[in-house]
Amino acid sequence: MGFWDGYVWPLILIVLSVLAIVVPIILLVAYLTYAERKVMGAMQLRQGPMVVGPFGLLQPIADGVKLMAKETIIPSGANRVVFIVAPMLTFFLALVAWAVIPFDDGWVLANINVGILYLFAISSLGVYGIVMAGWASNSRYAFLGGLRSAAQMVSYEVSMGFIIISVLLCVGSLNLSDIVRAQQDLWFCIPLFPMFVIFFVSTVAETNRLPFDLPEGESEIAGGFMVEYSAMTYALFFLGEYANMILMSGMTTVLFLGGWLSPFAFPPFTWIPGVIWFALKVAACLFVFIWIRATFPRYRYDQLMRLGWKVFLPASLFWIVLTAGALIAFDWLPK
Protein backbone atom coordinates (compact mmCIF):
# COMPACT_ATOMS: atom_id res chain seq x y z
CA MET A 1 0.00 0.00 0.00
CA GLY A 2 1.50 3.32 -1.12
CA PHE A 3 1.52 6.61 0.72
CA TRP A 4 -1.30 7.97 -1.48
CA ASP A 5 -3.63 4.97 -0.99
CA GLY A 6 -2.82 4.56 2.69
CA TYR A 7 -2.93 8.14 3.94
CA VAL A 8 -3.82 10.86 1.44
CA TRP A 9 -6.86 9.32 -0.26
CA PRO A 10 -8.64 8.33 3.02
CA LEU A 11 -7.99 11.85 4.34
CA ILE A 12 -9.50 13.39 1.19
CA LEU A 13 -12.57 11.16 1.54
CA ILE A 14 -13.04 12.23 5.17
CA VAL A 15 -12.75 15.93 4.24
CA LEU A 16 -15.27 15.50 1.39
CA SER A 17 -17.66 13.64 3.72
CA VAL A 18 -17.43 16.43 6.30
CA LEU A 19 -18.05 19.10 3.63
CA ALA A 20 -21.02 17.11 2.33
CA ILE A 21 -22.62 17.54 5.78
CA VAL A 22 -21.37 20.99 6.83
CA VAL A 23 -22.11 22.92 3.61
CA PRO A 24 -25.81 21.85 3.38
CA ILE A 25 -26.25 22.50 7.13
CA ILE A 26 -24.90 26.07 6.76
CA LEU A 27 -27.20 26.67 3.76
CA LEU A 28 -30.13 25.23 5.74
CA VAL A 29 -29.32 27.53 8.66
CA ALA A 30 -29.32 30.55 6.34
CA TYR A 31 -32.62 29.66 4.71
CA LEU A 32 -34.25 28.60 7.97
CA THR A 33 -34.13 32.29 8.93
CA TYR A 34 -35.95 33.05 5.65
CA ALA A 35 -38.50 30.27 6.23
CA GLU A 36 -39.14 31.51 9.77
CA ARG A 37 -39.87 35.04 8.55
CA LYS A 38 -42.18 33.80 5.79
CA VAL A 39 -44.08 31.33 7.98
CA MET A 40 -44.49 33.85 10.81
CA GLY A 41 -45.54 36.44 8.24
CA ALA A 42 -48.26 34.11 6.96
CA MET A 43 -49.42 33.37 10.51
CA GLN A 44 -49.58 37.11 11.27
CA LEU A 45 -51.26 38.02 7.93
CA ARG A 46 -48.28 39.81 6.37
CA GLN A 47 -45.81 38.97 3.60
CA GLY A 48 -42.40 38.66 5.24
CA PRO A 49 -39.23 39.30 3.16
CA MET A 50 -40.17 40.31 -0.41
CA VAL A 51 -37.58 42.88 -1.56
CA VAL A 52 -34.17 41.20 -2.05
CA GLY A 53 -34.43 38.77 -4.97
CA PRO A 54 -37.57 36.98 -6.23
CA PHE A 55 -39.96 36.43 -3.30
CA GLY A 56 -37.17 37.68 -1.01
CA LEU A 57 -35.08 34.51 -1.56
CA LEU A 58 -31.79 36.43 -1.44
CA GLN A 59 -32.58 38.04 1.93
CA PRO A 60 -30.39 35.58 3.98
CA ILE A 61 -27.43 36.31 1.67
CA ALA A 62 -27.99 40.06 2.04
CA ASP A 63 -28.12 39.66 5.84
CA GLY A 64 -24.85 37.68 5.79
CA VAL A 65 -23.08 40.28 3.63
CA LYS A 66 -24.34 43.08 5.88
CA LEU A 67 -23.09 41.37 9.06
CA MET A 68 -19.69 40.57 7.52
CA ALA A 69 -19.29 44.19 6.41
CA LYS A 70 -19.98 45.60 9.88
CA GLU A 71 -17.24 46.39 12.36
CA THR A 72 -16.73 43.94 15.23
CA ILE A 73 -16.73 46.07 18.38
CA ILE A 74 -15.09 44.55 21.47
CA PRO A 75 -15.81 46.33 24.79
CA SER A 76 -12.71 47.84 26.41
CA GLY A 77 -13.21 45.85 29.63
CA ALA A 78 -13.85 42.52 27.90
CA ASN A 79 -11.53 39.51 27.83
CA ARG A 80 -10.76 39.66 24.09
CA VAL A 81 -9.79 36.02 23.54
CA VAL A 82 -12.73 34.49 25.40
CA PHE A 83 -15.08 37.11 23.89
CA ILE A 84 -14.15 35.97 20.35
CA VAL A 85 -13.89 32.22 21.09
CA ALA A 86 -17.36 31.94 22.74
CA PRO A 87 -19.51 32.40 19.59
CA MET A 88 -17.08 30.26 17.55
CA LEU A 89 -17.44 27.44 20.10
CA THR A 90 -21.25 27.65 20.06
CA PHE A 91 -21.42 27.42 16.27
CA PHE A 92 -18.72 24.74 16.01
CA LEU A 93 -20.44 22.41 18.50
CA ALA A 94 -23.74 22.70 16.62
CA LEU A 95 -21.97 21.37 13.50
CA VAL A 96 -19.77 18.72 15.16
CA ALA A 97 -22.78 16.87 16.61
CA TRP A 98 -23.96 15.90 13.10
CA ALA A 99 -21.10 13.39 12.83
CA VAL A 100 -23.24 10.62 14.40
CA ILE A 101 -26.69 11.49 12.98
CA PRO A 102 -27.75 8.88 10.35
CA PHE A 103 -29.44 10.44 7.30
CA ASP A 104 -30.24 7.07 5.72
CA ASP A 105 -29.30 3.43 6.21
CA GLY A 106 -25.48 3.56 6.15
CA TRP A 107 -25.41 7.34 5.53
CA VAL A 108 -23.59 8.43 8.67
CA LEU A 109 -20.15 9.98 9.06
CA ALA A 110 -19.21 8.11 12.27
CA ASN A 111 -21.34 5.02 12.94
CA ILE A 112 -20.08 4.61 16.52
CA ASN A 113 -21.79 2.37 19.07
CA VAL A 114 -22.01 5.18 21.64
CA GLY A 115 -23.63 7.82 19.39
CA ILE A 116 -26.08 8.88 22.11
CA LEU A 117 -23.24 9.46 24.60
CA TYR A 118 -21.45 11.55 21.96
CA LEU A 119 -24.56 13.72 21.54
CA PHE A 120 -24.85 14.07 25.33
CA ALA A 121 -21.24 15.26 25.52
CA ILE A 122 -21.63 17.79 22.70
CA SER A 123 -24.92 19.21 24.02
CA SER A 124 -23.40 19.55 27.51
CA LEU A 125 -20.45 21.52 26.10
CA GLY A 126 -22.86 23.97 24.48
CA VAL A 127 -23.37 25.63 27.87
CA TYR A 128 -19.72 26.73 27.94
CA GLY A 129 -19.99 29.02 24.92
CA ILE A 130 -22.87 30.95 26.47
CA VAL A 131 -21.31 31.20 29.93
CA MET A 132 -18.02 32.33 28.37
CA ALA A 133 -19.85 35.00 26.35
CA GLY A 134 -21.69 36.30 29.43
CA TRP A 135 -18.53 36.45 31.56
CA ALA A 136 -16.11 37.77 28.93
CA SER A 137 -18.34 40.72 28.01
CA ASN A 138 -17.73 42.33 31.44
CA SER A 139 -21.37 43.45 31.53
CA ARG A 140 -23.92 42.78 34.27
CA TYR A 141 -26.69 42.25 31.73
CA ALA A 142 -24.65 39.79 29.67
CA PHE A 143 -23.57 37.95 32.82
CA LEU A 144 -27.17 37.62 34.04
CA GLY A 145 -28.19 36.34 30.60
CA GLY A 146 -25.37 33.79 30.66
CA LEU A 147 -26.37 32.54 34.12
CA ARG A 148 -30.00 32.28 33.08
CA SER A 149 -29.11 30.32 29.96
CA ALA A 150 -26.75 27.95 31.79
CA ALA A 151 -29.38 27.18 34.45
CA GLN A 152 -32.05 26.70 31.79
CA MET A 153 -29.98 24.39 29.59
CA VAL A 154 -28.78 22.25 32.50
CA SER A 155 -32.34 21.97 33.88
CA TYR A 156 -33.84 20.69 30.65
CA GLU A 157 -30.89 18.47 29.75
CA VAL A 158 -31.67 16.35 32.82
CA SER A 159 -35.20 15.49 31.68
CA MET A 160 -33.98 14.99 28.09
CA GLY A 161 -31.41 12.50 29.36
CA PHE A 162 -34.01 10.46 31.25
CA ILE A 163 -36.32 10.44 28.21
CA ILE A 164 -33.49 9.15 26.02
CA ILE A 165 -32.87 6.40 28.61
CA SER A 166 -36.50 5.30 28.10
CA VAL A 167 -35.80 4.98 24.37
CA LEU A 168 -32.57 3.08 25.00
CA LEU A 169 -34.40 0.60 27.24
CA CYS A 170 -36.69 -0.21 24.31
CA VAL A 171 -33.80 -0.61 21.85
CA GLY A 172 -30.94 -2.13 23.87
CA SER A 173 -28.30 -0.15 21.95
CA LEU A 174 -26.68 3.28 22.02
CA ASN A 175 -26.13 3.27 18.24
CA LEU A 176 -28.40 5.80 16.53
CA SER A 177 -28.82 3.62 13.42
CA ASP A 178 -29.98 0.72 15.64
CA ILE A 179 -32.49 3.07 17.29
CA VAL A 180 -33.98 3.89 13.87
CA ARG A 181 -34.09 0.22 12.79
CA ALA A 182 -35.90 -0.68 16.03
CA GLN A 183 -38.78 1.55 14.84
CA GLN A 184 -39.33 -0.50 11.66
CA ASP A 185 -42.78 -1.65 12.81
CA LEU A 186 -43.78 1.15 15.19
CA TRP A 187 -42.31 4.62 15.68
CA PHE A 188 -41.50 5.39 19.31
CA CYS A 189 -43.60 8.56 19.21
CA ILE A 190 -46.69 6.34 19.56
CA PRO A 191 -45.91 4.09 22.59
CA LEU A 192 -43.78 6.84 24.20
CA PHE A 193 -46.05 9.74 23.22
CA PRO A 194 -45.91 11.64 26.57
CA MET A 195 -42.11 11.46 26.49
CA PHE A 196 -42.09 12.54 22.85
CA VAL A 197 -44.01 15.70 23.79
CA ILE A 198 -41.80 16.42 26.82
CA PHE A 199 -38.65 15.80 24.77
CA PHE A 200 -39.72 18.21 22.05
CA VAL A 201 -40.66 20.92 24.56
CA SER A 202 -37.29 20.37 26.26
CA THR A 203 -35.52 20.86 22.91
CA VAL A 204 -37.33 24.19 22.55
CA ALA A 205 -36.02 25.22 25.98
CA GLU A 206 -32.56 23.81 25.20
CA THR A 207 -32.26 26.04 22.13
CA ASN A 208 -33.46 29.15 24.03
CA ARG A 209 -36.44 29.59 21.71
CA LEU A 210 -39.77 31.20 22.48
CA PRO A 211 -41.61 30.75 24.80
CA PHE A 212 -38.40 29.88 26.69
CA ASP A 213 -36.12 32.66 25.38
CA LEU A 214 -35.48 34.05 28.86
CA PRO A 215 -31.67 34.32 28.35
CA GLU A 216 -32.33 36.79 25.52
CA GLY A 217 -35.35 38.47 27.13
CA GLU A 218 -35.13 42.00 25.75
CA SER A 219 -37.73 43.36 28.15
CA GLU A 220 -35.92 42.10 31.28
CA ILE A 221 -32.15 42.05 30.69
CA ALA A 222 -31.53 44.17 27.58
CA GLY A 223 -30.67 41.39 25.14
CA GLY A 224 -29.11 38.78 27.42
CA PHE A 225 -25.66 37.26 26.95
CA MET A 226 -25.36 38.65 23.38
CA VAL A 227 -25.91 42.28 24.38
CA GLU A 228 -22.26 43.31 23.78
CA TYR A 229 -21.84 41.38 20.52
CA SER A 230 -21.97 42.83 17.01
CA ALA A 231 -21.23 41.95 13.37
CA MET A 232 -20.00 38.38 12.75
CA THR A 233 -19.56 37.49 16.42
CA TYR A 234 -23.28 38.16 16.90
CA ALA A 235 -24.04 36.33 13.62
CA LEU A 236 -22.23 33.20 14.87
CA PHE A 237 -24.48 33.07 17.96
CA PHE A 238 -27.49 33.63 15.74
CA LEU A 239 -26.42 30.88 13.33
CA GLY A 240 -25.52 28.58 16.22
CA GLU A 241 -29.05 28.88 17.60
CA TYR A 242 -30.60 27.93 14.27
CA ALA A 243 -28.06 25.12 13.73
CA ASN A 244 -29.06 23.77 17.16
CA MET A 245 -32.72 23.91 16.13
CA ILE A 246 -31.93 21.73 13.09
CA LEU A 247 -29.82 19.38 15.26
CA MET A 248 -32.58 18.97 17.87
CA SER A 249 -35.11 18.33 15.09
CA GLY A 250 -32.75 15.66 13.74
CA MET A 251 -32.47 14.07 17.19
CA THR A 252 -36.26 14.08 17.58
CA THR A 253 -36.59 12.45 14.16
CA VAL A 254 -34.07 9.71 14.97
CA LEU A 255 -35.35 8.96 18.47
CA PHE A 256 -39.12 9.16 17.96
CA LEU A 257 -40.11 9.60 14.29
CA GLY A 258 -38.40 6.63 12.67
CA GLY A 259 -35.43 8.48 11.16
CA TRP A 260 -35.16 7.63 7.47
CA LEU A 261 -38.02 5.08 7.58
CA SER A 262 -41.09 5.66 5.40
CA PRO A 263 -44.39 6.17 7.28
CA PHE A 264 -46.15 3.90 4.77
CA ALA A 265 -44.89 0.40 3.93
CA PHE A 266 -46.27 0.23 0.38
CA PRO A 267 -45.45 1.78 -3.03
CA PRO A 268 -44.98 4.53 -4.09
CA PHE A 269 -43.90 5.64 -0.58
CA THR A 270 -41.30 2.88 -0.28
CA TRP A 271 -39.63 4.13 -3.50
CA ILE A 272 -38.78 7.51 -1.95
CA PRO A 273 -35.15 7.55 -0.64
CA GLY A 274 -34.76 7.45 3.13
CA VAL A 275 -32.81 10.73 3.20
CA ILE A 276 -35.89 12.49 1.74
CA TRP A 277 -38.11 11.13 4.52
CA PHE A 278 -35.50 12.21 7.08
CA ALA A 279 -35.42 15.74 5.62
CA LEU A 280 -39.24 15.98 5.55
CA LYS A 281 -39.51 14.94 9.22
CA VAL A 282 -36.82 17.45 10.25
CA ALA A 283 -38.66 20.15 8.27
CA ALA A 284 -41.92 19.26 10.07
CA CYS A 285 -40.20 19.61 13.48
CA LEU A 286 -38.71 22.97 12.44
CA PHE A 287 -42.15 24.16 11.35
CA VAL A 288 -43.45 23.37 14.86
CA PHE A 289 -40.54 25.39 16.33
CA ILE A 290 -41.66 28.40 14.26
CA TRP A 291 -45.34 27.76 14.98
CA ILE A 292 -44.66 27.79 18.74
CA ARG A 293 -42.75 31.09 18.42
CA ALA A 294 -45.66 32.71 16.59
CA THR A 295 -48.24 31.44 19.07
CA PHE A 296 -47.09 31.49 22.70
CA PRO A 297 -46.07 34.37 24.98
CA ARG A 298 -42.82 34.22 26.96
CA TYR A 299 -42.74 32.33 30.27
CA ARG A 300 -41.62 33.95 33.50
CA TYR A 301 -38.32 32.57 34.77
CA ASP A 302 -39.87 30.91 37.83
CA GLN A 303 -42.44 29.21 35.56
CA LEU A 304 -39.65 27.98 33.31
CA MET A 305 -37.73 26.42 36.19
CA ARG A 306 -40.86 24.98 37.80
CA LEU A 307 -41.79 23.26 34.53
CA GLY A 308 -38.34 21.70 34.19
CA TRP A 309 -37.76 20.52 37.76
CA LYS A 310 -41.28 19.91 39.12
CA VAL A 311 -43.08 18.60 36.03
CA PHE A 312 -40.71 17.23 33.37
CA LEU A 313 -38.15 15.65 35.72
CA PRO A 314 -40.65 13.63 37.84
CA ALA A 315 -42.60 12.63 34.71
CA SER A 316 -39.49 11.39 32.89
CA LEU A 317 -38.31 9.48 35.99
CA PHE A 318 -41.73 7.85 36.37
CA TRP A 319 -41.73 6.88 32.70
CA ILE A 320 -38.35 5.12 33.03
CA VAL A 321 -39.78 2.95 35.83
CA LEU A 322 -42.98 2.35 33.84
CA THR A 323 -41.06 1.43 30.67
CA ALA A 324 -38.68 -0.92 32.49
CA GLY A 325 -41.58 -2.57 34.33
CA ALA A 326 -43.57 -3.09 31.13
CA LEU A 327 -40.56 -4.52 29.27
CA ILE A 328 -39.89 -7.04 32.05
CA ALA A 329 -43.54 -7.90 32.79
CA PHE A 330 -44.44 -8.61 29.15
CA ASP A 331 -41.02 -10.01 28.18
CA TRP A 332 -40.47 -7.28 25.59
CA LEU A 333 -36.77 -6.83 26.43
CA PRO A 334 -34.72 -6.29 23.23
CA LYS A 335 -32.86 -9.42 22.22
Describe the structure.
This protein has two domains: 1-69; 75-329, no CATH class. The chain contains eleven helices and no strands. It has helices at residues 3-43, 59-69, 80-96, 115-136, 140-171, 176-181, 193-206, 218-221, 231-256, 274-295, 301-329. The protein is globular, with a radius of gyration of 21 Å.
Total of helices: 11
Oligomeric grouping of the chains: single chain
Order of helices and strands: HHHHHHHHHHH
Rounded radius of gyration (Å): 21 Å
The biggest beta sheet is recorded as: none
* Shape by Cα distribution: globular
Strand content: under 5%
Count of discrete structural domains = 2
| Fraction of residues in H or I helices | 55-70%
Distance between the termini: 41 Å
* Topology, number of strands: 0
What are the segments in which pLDDT stays under 50 over at least 5 consecutive residues? none
Average pLDDT level: 85
Task: State the secondary-structure class.
Answer: mainly alpha
